[in-house]
Amino acid sequence: REDRKTWKPFIGYDSLRIELAYRSLGPGEPREGEAAAVEPVCVRSGLYEVDVVNAESYPVYWNQTEKIPVMRGQWFIDGTWQPLEEEESNLIEQEHLNRFRGQQLQESFDMEVSKPVDGKEAIHSLKLSRNHVDWHSVDEVYLYSDATTSKIARTVTQKLGFSKASSSGTRLHRGYVEEATLEDKPPQTSHIVFVVHGIGQKMDQGRIIKNTAMMRDTARKIEEKYFSNLATHVEFLPVEWRSKLTLDGDTVDSITPDKVRGLRDMLNSSAMDIMYYTSPLYRDELVKGLQQELNRLYTLFCSRNPEFEEKGGKVSIVSHSLGCVITYDIMTGWNPVRLYEQLLQKEEEELEDRWMSYEEQRLLEELYITKQRLREIEERLHGLKASTISKPPVLKFKVENFFCMGSPLAVFLALRGIRPGNSGSQDHILPRTICNRLLNIFHPTDPVAYRLEPLILKHYSNISPVQIHWYNTANPLPYDHMKPSFLNPTKEPTSVTDSESVSTVPSPTTSPVMVRRHYGESITNIGKASILGAASIGKGLGGMLFSRFGRSSTTTPQTLETGKDGAEGGDDKKATTVGTPPLPHSSSGFLEPTGRIRHRIDFELREGLVESRYWSAVTSHTAYWSSLDIALFLLTFMCKHDQEDTDKSNLDTI
């Protein structure tokens, strides 16, 4: 029973193994030695264990303060099939066996029997503390309340001609409605998904566990409906990296004023994580916290599932919000020191170009030679270390798919100086040798989410992200077959300078995507401004670096505007730089193959037909966890190879 709700049955495979462990205890209270001898039973696809002695369950991969109570159900209430409390159930069971042991039951369970037979007298009765039980036959057992109101009601209804059983009795059944079988067993996990939280976890430490549970439950529904014939079974594991970090201790709390304390505490527990991450002092602590937790979970999972690696099990990561940025930095090994090295190199180049005195020139040459010598010594030292100690990989597994949800990763990359290229490949921002596929999922009104594709090819800021299919869409077009379409197919892209940017006048043939996105623009921009502000407060070297080399001669200040266009999907203002080649634009409104990204990265949820854009801007950043559309989307990509193999074998059979 979770969260003090109704009792839920374990599957047959789990129930029978728990029963075996229970019977191994023997009758009576277990002694101290016996309690240690009974090993916990692994249940619920290996996510939980059951302590049979203390009748409680607890998770294996994450911490949970409250244990989950477990009950051995014997007598069940008709209709709801909820078990009677154990104390009453044991008394009824004992009385039942004493009175009816050895009597023949009916061979088959007839549902008609559940209707009470009027006029039958009770052949046996048992008094409990607040109830009593009547046996009308060996398998007709009724529970009655002994409360005064129930007694009065029984008297009245019996005078009206109704039987005692039909008027106020509750039919009891010995044993559950379904028989437990070992065949009722979960499939072996072939794909694990680590679910990484973003900011705000300090405020509610159990949130990522609840969110992952929601995602797991929705994925199970989708798996049963669409992927039941596939061998792939996906398991979701929460990665809670924030609570173990000490960071500044309570220094920030001590400098927080008392007025509107609730709001300030909320900001300290959420937005402060962005500032911690952009701080050179605490950034490494956050990165190591997540990295160690990912490796711990993977090692623990493999130790409990030894066949996972042998059978080529795959690993994907789903990250939310700031978690996307930290995960990306762990996978790529990005560090602010790189930016510092680039800054020094830039300064050297600038010094070479200006006039200087003979003495200054001589000292600079000496400095240059010394730096060269230092680099050579460092390389030799690293070479010696590498030959003796092999450095372990940052992550103990290869990432198959990296799903970003509501991610500000694009704006972090833009502030680090990443600019669009012309390769049309994911390798421009995340090499496929590190991660096979990068997918950026966002809600159209999520104020924290940004697009990634315009950082690979600039003209993708004018191309709509791929629309995620509704989960109940009949025969949806596969994502790989969907052609990129322009946000505004009626208007040819212009080639003007930023100062001469023109406004697009919506025409009657404007794409409906364009029209629906214009609303709610202002509130989305408020959210973006706050993210940019928080990122810029603590970015340290950032201002110095980007003023020097962030904008190259081929880049204009339109970069942030591009990011804005990408996230909005359809701003009115569209401007490109002088010298930008014309987009590979066809009259059909689709992009020509020559200017395409090979594997699409930006995927957008469809807006609800009745949702308010202003309200969804507030709620959309946390709306991903229970979405059936996202569950189907995730499973589509994770079960892709398995699906293709099945389709191929079906074709071969035909």
TrEMBL record:
Domain DDHD: 395-640
GO molecular function, one term: metal ion binding
InterPro entries attached to this UniProt entry: DDHD_dom (IPR004177), PA-PLA1 (IPR058055)
Biased composition (Basic and acidic residues): 562-575
GO cellular component: cytoplasm
Composition bias, Low complexity: 493-512
Region (Disordered): 489-512, 552-591
Family the entry assigns: Belongs to the PA-PLA1 family.
Name used for this protein in its record: DDHD domain containing 1
Gene source species: Athene cunicularia (Burrowing owl)
Originating gene: DDHD1
